[in-house]
Amino acid sequence: MAVELSLMARLLAYEQRCSQPISSHRLVAVRLDAQVLSVLAMAGEDTTIHMAACGELGAKPSLRSVPDPRVRDQQYQLFEWLGKRFDNYFRRCRAAGTYPQIWVSSSAAASHLDTLADRLRFNKNNDEVRRFGELLTYCTERFPIAGQQTLQTATSALNLHWITGQDQSEDEHLLTLLTWLDPPNDQNLLAAVANAERVPMGVKTDPDYDRDVLLPLVISYNESRRAGSSQALLDAKAQLIHNALEPVVIPIFKATQRAIAMLADIARPPLPGLRDLEHREAEEFAGFMEARDRGYHLPLRDSAKLAAFRLTAREDAIQNTEATIRLGDRMARAAGRLNGFVVRGEVLDRGRSRLAPRRFRYEFSMSTVQRVLRIRLRDELQWADDPRLRVIVTDINRSGRRTSIRCEILNGQRSIGLPEIGTVLEMIPSTPDWSRLIRERGNLKAKLGVTPWTHAQGEIPVLAARKAPDDPLAAVEALR
Fold it and tell me: Using N-to-C axis directions, what is the helix angle for 304-328 and 436-447, rounded to 10°?
C-alpha cells in the first residue's frame, strides 16, 4: 500500500510537472561545517582521481588535478592533498565533540570513494596516503548504515523529501532531480530535464568528451614526458588538462551545493529524533578516532566477533531509524498505516480485573477499519502520541471491514491511565531504543567468548540429527 502511495505521488508530479513533498519534516542533518567533495575519475580507472573539487558549504571549491592519474607519484600528491584537508577537518570535529559530514553528488560518487578507500587504507608505500584511506574508509563504511549522517549523497537526501515524475533510477542524476524540484519558468520541464541529462553528474566524463578533448591532451602530455621535455612545457600541458577538466567538475560541485542549500532552507521542521541520530554519529566517530590513536589498524577481514558486532549494529540502526522516522514524521506514519504496521483505531471499551490483592490487569479494546493489518497476538505496541503507554495484543477479531483489537496495558497505567472511550489512538510497533545496542553487544561478547565452530580451525563437527516438528507453524508460534 505504501508503494501505491509513492506511485500516486509520482503520477501526480508527472501530471503537474512539479515534484511533490513526501515528508513533513527535514530528515537529514545539514552541518554548517560540512565539506562538499566532487571528484572525476579517468575512464577505466576506478581507483583514481583525475580532478577533485573540495570546499565548505557556500564557499568556492579548492581544485586539484593531475595530468595522468595512472602515474603513481602524481596520483599520490593528489591523495596527500585531500588527506591533509580530511585530517584537519576530522581533528576540528573531534575537538568540538561532534562528527564530520561529507557531501557528494550521488551514490555513484559514494561508491567510487568506497572503492578508493578500500585500495588506499592498506597502502605500504606512503603513510599519508594510508591515513587518507583510513579516514575515507570511516565515511564509506558509515554510508550503508541506516540513519547515518557522515557521508551524504545529495540525490538520496533530496529523494527523502520530494518525489519526481520520472523513473526512480533517473533520480540518481542530480541535475535532472534539481530540475524537477525547481522547474524553469521559461522552458518546458521535460525539455529542461532532457538537457540536464546531458551534463555529467557522477564521477566519469562524457565518452565523446574523452575521445575528442581529454584523450589528445593526455597523450600529448605523456609524449612530452617520455621525451624528456622541460618542466615548463610539462606544466603548460598539465594546465591544459586542468582547464579542460574544470568546466566538468565545477557544475557537479555547484549542483551539490545547490541541493544542500535547498535542504537547509526547507520549510519543514527538523525531525524530532534527528538530534539522537546525530548523537549516535558523534559517538561512532569518537570511537573510530580513539582506535586510530591507539594504533589499531583496519582489518583486511573481520573476525567472527567483529562481524557479529557489525551486523548487530546495522540491524539496530535500521530499527531505530525506522522507528524514529515513523514516530516523528507524519507522512511516514501515514505510509505505516497503509502498510499495516501502524494501527489507528477508536477505543470501544475499557476495564480492569483483579489478579491479586493490590494487583490489577488493565485492558481496553479498539476498533479499526484498516484494510491491511500486520499485527499478531502477543505483539507489543506503543501509543505514538505518548510512547509511555505500552500494550500487548491479547485478541484480534475481524468482522467484515472492521477489526477489533484487545490490548492489555504493560506500562503507562500510572502516568497516562486507561484511554477514554471514543479516543482515537495510533499505535506503533516500536520507538527508538538507543541503549539496546550496548546490551546486545554485551550479550554477544559473552556468547562469542569461544569462537563458534563455523569459524574455528579444524574439522567440521558432526551435528546430531533433529526430528522435524509435526506442526512447524505451531513450533514457530511457540518461540514467540
Answer: 160
The set of residues, in sequence order, having a beta carbon less than 8 Å from that of 402 and lying 6+ positions away, is: 367, 368, 369
Cell of 249: 567538475
pLDDT digits (tens, 9 = 90+) for 439-477: 988 888 888 877 777 777 777 777 777 788 888 888 888
Architecture of the CATH domain 343-428: Beta Barrel (2.40)
- Which backbone phi and psi does 424 adopt, to 5 degrees? -95, 120
Q: Do 309 and 441 meet the contact criterion of CB atoms below 8 Å apart?
A: yes
Question: Among residues 87, 92, 81, 105, which one has the least CA distance to residue 32?
Answer: 92
Beta strand segments in 266-374, E: 343-356, 359-368
Grid-cell match 579444524, residue found = 458
Residue type, 292: R
Residue among 390, 389, 392 nearest 416 (CA): 389
Which cell goes with 200? 555529467
Going by their DSSP bridges, the two strands 151-153 and 102-104 should be labelled as parallel
Which residues are within 8 A (CB) of 272 and not within 5 positions of it... i.e. 6 or more apart? 25, 327, 328
Q: Can you spell out the DSSP letters for 178-235? A: HHHHS--SSS-HHHHHHHHHTS--SSS--HHHIIIIIHHHHHHHHHHHHTT--HHHHH
Q: What is the 3-state secondary structure (H, E, C) of 52-100?
A: EEEEECCCCCEEEECCCCCCHHHHHHHHHHHHHHHHHHHHHHHHCCCCC
Decide if 383 contacts 342 (C-beta within 8 A). Answer: no
Sheet holding 102-104, edge to edge: 62-65, 51-56, 35-40, 102-104, 151-153
Q: Across residues 53-77, what is the average pLDDT? A: 93
Model confidence at 64: pLDDT above 50: yes
Whole-prediction pTM value?
Answer: 0.89
Question: 390-399 and 343-356 as β-strands: parallel, antiparallel, unpaired?
Answer: unpaired
Do the bridges between strand 402-411 and strand 359-368 make them parallel or antiparallel, or are there none, so unpaired? antiparallel
d(CA 371, CA 271): 29
Residue 137 belongs to what H/E stretch?
helix 127-142
The predicted-structure confidence for 263-273, as pLDDT tens digits, reads as follows 999 989 999 99
Taking residue 3's Cβ as centre, other Cβ atoms within 10 Å add up to 10
Question: What CA–CA distance (Å, rounded) separates 192 from 177?
Answer: 11
Segments making up each domain of the chain, as ranges: 2-298, 343-428
Residues with Cβ within 8 Å of residue 223, at least 6 apart in sequence: none
